[in-house]
Amino acid sequence: MLPFFGLLIGIALGLLVKVPVPSWLARYLGIALLAALDSSIGGLRASMEKTFNDRLFLGGFISNTVLAALIVYIGDNLGIELYLAAVVAFGVRLFQNLAIIRRHFFQAHHWE
Amino acid sequence: MGLTLGRWHVSLMMVLIILGFLVATAFSTQQRWQQRPGPRKQYLVDFIKEQRGDRTRLAAELQRLREQQGDERRRVAANQGAMAALSQALEDRRMIAGLTPVKGPGVAVVLGDAVSVPPGANPDNYIIHDYDVRLVVNALWRGGAEAIAVGGERLVATTAVRSAGTSILVNAKPLGSPYRIVAIGRPERLLKALENDRDAADFLQAYGPAVGLTARTRRLPTVRIPAYQGSLKMTNAR
Question: What is the pLDDT of residue B173?
Answer without folding.
Answer: 85
